[in-house]
Amino acid sequence: MLTNYSCLANSMQIIASCNLTPEDNCLGLLPLYHIYGMIVVQFSVLLSGASILYLPKFEQETFLRCLQERKITMAHLVPPLIVFLTKHPLVSNYDITSLKKIFCGAAPLGADITTDFLQRFTHGVKLNQGFGMTELSPVSNVDFTCTAGSIGHLVANTKGKIVHLETNKVLPPGEEGEYCVKGPQVMKGYFNNQKATDEMIESDGWLHTGDIGYFNKDGLVYIHDRLKELIKYKGSQVAPAELEAILLGHPNIQDAAVLGVPDDAAGELPKAFVVKKLGSTLSEEEIIKFVEGRVSSTKRLRGGVQFVDEIPKNPSGKILRRVLRTKYL
């Protein structure tokens, strides 16, 4: 549950970090039903006095023509669009040198693709990454230093810490642990689910993001892994357990697990690890089609299927995902 206060507070926090002016022309491409499109783009831009030009959907030439003809100075984008701008030959046909600032969020943006982007566009455009989640209304970090791979510093009036995964002890710079955040943007809680709320937010207000990372001596935060099991595909959350349940419903599948595998364009892709029943001739294509017919587009097994001899589990039957990742990826 997000409150009017948390959303307004986060809008003001974003404004303090993004430094927009009434002279900025911003691109509105992200859906307004998504927290990124609603708070980060719509509210924060308009409260800054800047203007927004909305496109109903992404189409390559329309997108590029808009950047060129409307002299867009700032755009909120997602990693797949950064990949498009970096690699697609069509981009060379357009003049987008009016674009001075890009903020990328909703999914991780790799340091390599950031470097490649800046090597293609040398007119002074700044590519900054941010970090957030719906439970944070949604932003906690914005990188205004153009440090490849970093999610940047904390936004105004926000505290952050890295804690040990087992002891919850606060860790010093350079040591990896779970990233925790505290500030006015933290959600009120999960609707009608006090247990889930208490598991995520401590009694003193610290929210556990479920992400593994570290911060350096300058306060820049880096996120490297996910403690939580949710797979983030193009900003949408995909629950492995849901896909595993579907897979286990197939008559020729003995056991299954799903992990997110890194992808430059989408962030993560769901990949299935499957133990076939003895004597089964089940193929990867059959499994992909089986799942595809039972889920929404964002939950398809775009990372593929890998057949394995067993799914590692602990004595209580919980899948050991880290062991699975280490063994097969």
TrEMBL record:
The keyword Transmembrane applies. InterPro entries: AMP-bd_C, AMP-bd_C_sf, AMP-dep_synth/lig_dom. GO terms for molecular function: CoA-ligase activity. Keywords: Membrane, Transmembrane, Transmembrane helix. The chain crosses the membrane at residues 33-55. Residues 1-191 form the AMP-dependent synthetase/ligase domain. Pfam families: AMP-binding, AMP-binding_C. Residues 242-318 form the AMP-binding enzyme C-terminal domain. The keyword Transmembrane applies. Belongs to the ATP-dependent AMP-binding enzyme family. This is AMP-dependent synthetase/ligase domain-containing protein.
